[in-house]
Amino acid sequence: METIKVLYNALISDRSKERFEMILEPLQAISQLAFLSYCPVGSKLSISDNILYIQEPGWGQTISRSYYLDKKEDLIYLFGVIKRFHSFYGFLEEGKGKKLFDELINLSKCGIEKLIQTYNKADSSHLTQTLRMYKSMIDKPDAFDMENDENKGKKTDIDEVFKKVVKLYKVSHYSILQHTMVLLKHNPACYRDYIEGYNKIMLDINNQMKKWISDNIIF
Q1: CA-to-CA dists, residue 101 to 34, 71, 95, angstroms
Q2: CA 21 → CA 2, 15, 28, 84, 132, distances in Å?
Q3: 101-159 pLDDT, tens per residue?
Q4: Could you give phi then psi for residue 45, rounded to 5 degrees?
Q5: pTM for the complete prediction?
């Protein structure tokens, strides 16, 4: 736990990427973690302009990560995503949304396991320890709290913004996500097409979400 606190505090003070860019909308990020479960080991995650992206293994991954200043330590920002997903989308557990919620929870844990396998090869013991903690947090989000009073104040401001961002999603958006999950389950070999298709459909929502964050969150 102490190691994780050191990593968290180091990233809070890091300026290689503006902290503003690293704020992630919970459903967008959790859906990408779930999609990651269908991608090959070696796939990594990138955060750019408040959006979480999957980078498949290959020569393009190295170039992209260098260009966008991606680092494996950026994964620490998933901490807030996991905490907020339960806070803002826990309502999906009730009624017709329960199946989608359960699938997102289970598949996102599988996605994190893919990351653990990826970084195990790089002998990144501190990072894999953090990822294992995140995997546990998906089931028990209140089990860990690493924020000091100052950061909790900022967290409150961000949470107020996300209360409004959640309203951007309509029933049809949840339905699209649910059907994408079904397609992935029945034809995992076409994972790339399904993930790219879903991300294109959600482009307008993502742009609105980024604008909400830009207009309402100030560090």
Answers
A1: 11, 29, 10
A2: 26, 11, 14, 17, 25
A3: 999 999 999 999 999 999 997 767 788 999 999 999 998 887 766 554 445 545 557 78
A4: -115, 145
A5: 0.87
